[in-house]
């Protein structure tokens, strides 16, 4: 499935992989529920490590980071392994997402 | 959380207050933003990108990186001011001051007492030695109690970028409201 808006695209059409690109600056963590439902579903259906490719995600505000962190906490509860693929040339990704590793030992961070 | 009754102008946070002297005489750009929280939300991003482009137009070194950092920070500060404004005062003022290798960004909004207390609590936490652990704890608590707001924006800015943040709080007479001036210094190379 693909969610496509003027600002961002979320693509879950490949098994065990989600790609998020563009700019996500929604008003609250609650407003991420609908677009991030694709990540939750992909996590439930994953047969191995779920890759979340963020390398073309230019911006994600603190509400989005909170929502992503909540999914990571849920993955820990369900013992689901995840990998965030991040872009080291986008400053917020390296600075902010690396610390989320402390939420779940089976969260891997791969830098492109 | 400790409830602080504000009856005079106070200053909180990790920014040196003396820095504010004469600052408003050096304003490069100022903006008044009337905003409806949900309908106009996208304007936060539009304005932050505009301010960022304005700041970096004559830069050559590390331009892409600085643009990304400034837009991230300014957007977070604008969103913060709007989220914490009192419902009848849907207007915020924003100011930009361009100094050598430093940008000062100021937001002004009117906030009710509860939001003011939350801000003071966050400002006091800026002095904590391990802000990253505070952010992770807030995320875990928000998840546990299913809280609507993230409340990590300012801590995230303070933890990840070369910033100092101060809040000047001025009580508004005969009301339970306060004028909040949030001053953020962003250093870059």
Describe the structure.
Chain A is an alpha/beta fold and 112 residues long. Chain A has one domain: 2-Layer Sandwich (Transcription Regulator spoIIAA), CATH 3.30.750. Helix content of chain A is 32%, strand content 35%. Chain A has a 6-stranded mixed beta sheet with strand order 1-2-3-4-5-6, with helices on one face. In chain A, helix 1 packs parallel to helix 2. The radius of gyration of chain A is 13 Å and the shape is globular. The mean pLDDT of chain A is 96. With 189 residues, chain B is an alpha+beta fold. In chain B, strands 1-5-6-4-3-2 form a 6-stranded antiparallel beta sheet, with helices on one face. In chain B, helix 1 packs antiparallel against helix 2 and helix 4 packs antiparallel against helix 5. The longest helix of chain B is centred in the middle third of the chain and has 21 residues. The radius of gyration of chain B is 16 Å and the shape is globular. The model of chain B has no long low-confidence stretch (mean pLDDT 89).
Keywords:
heterodimer, A: 112 residues, alpha/beta, Transcription Regulator spoIIAA, six-stranded mixed beta sheet, 3 helices, 6 strands, globular, B: 189 residues, alpha+beta, six-stranded antiparallel beta sheet
Helices and strands of chain A, in order, run as EEEHEHEHE
Report the C-alpha radius of gyration of chain A, rounded. Answer: 13 Å
N-to-C SSE string of chain B, H for helix and E for strand: EEHHEEHHHEE
For the largest beta sheet of chain B, what order do the strands appear in spatially?
1-5-6-4-3-2
Radius of gyration of chain B, rounded? 16 Å
Count of individual beta strands of chain A: 6
Strand fraction band of chain A? 25-35%
Described by its quaternary structure, the protein is: heterodimer
Provide the domain count of chain B: 1
General shape of chain A = globular
Fold-level CATH name of chain A: Transcription Regulator spoIIAA
Strand content of chain B: 25-35%
């Amino acid at each position: 499935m693909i969610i496509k808006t003027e600002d961002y695209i979320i693509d879950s059409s490949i098994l065990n992989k989600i790609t998020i690109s563009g700019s996500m600056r929604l008003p609250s963590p609650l407003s991420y529920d609908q677009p991030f439902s694709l990540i939750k579903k992909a996590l439930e259906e994953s047969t191995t490590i779920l890759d979340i490719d963020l390398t073309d995600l230019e911006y994600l505000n603190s509400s989005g980071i909170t929502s992503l962190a909540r999914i990571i906490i849920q993955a820990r509860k369900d013992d689901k392994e995840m990998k965030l693929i991040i872009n080291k040339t986008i400053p917020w990704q390296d600075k902010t997402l690396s610390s989320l590793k402390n939420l779940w030992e089976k969260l891997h961070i791969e830098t492109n | 959380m400790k409830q602080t009754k504000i009856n005079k102008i106070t200053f909180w946070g990790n920014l040196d207050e003396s820095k504010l002297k004469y600052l408003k005489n050096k304003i490069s750009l100022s903006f008044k933003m009337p905003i409806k929280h949900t309908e106009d939300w996208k304007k936060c991003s539009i304005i932050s990108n505009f301010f960022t482009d304005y700041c970096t137009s004559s830069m050559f070194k590390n331009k892409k990186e600085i643009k990304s950092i400034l837009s991230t920070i300014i957007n977070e500060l604008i969103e913060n001011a709007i989220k914490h404004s009192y419902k009848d005062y849907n207007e915020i003022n924003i100011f930009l001051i361009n100094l050598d290798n430093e940008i000062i960004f100021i937001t002004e909004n009117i906030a009710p007492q509860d939001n003011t207390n939350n801000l003071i609590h966050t400002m006091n936490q800026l002095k904590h030695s391990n802000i990253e652990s505070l952010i992770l704890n807030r995320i875990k608590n928000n998840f546990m109690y299913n809280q609507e707001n993230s409340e990590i924006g300012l801590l995230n800015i303070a933890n990840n970028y070369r910033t100092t943040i101060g809040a000047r709080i001025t009580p508004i007479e005969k009301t339970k409201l306060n004028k909040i001036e949030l001053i953020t210094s962003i250093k870059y190379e």
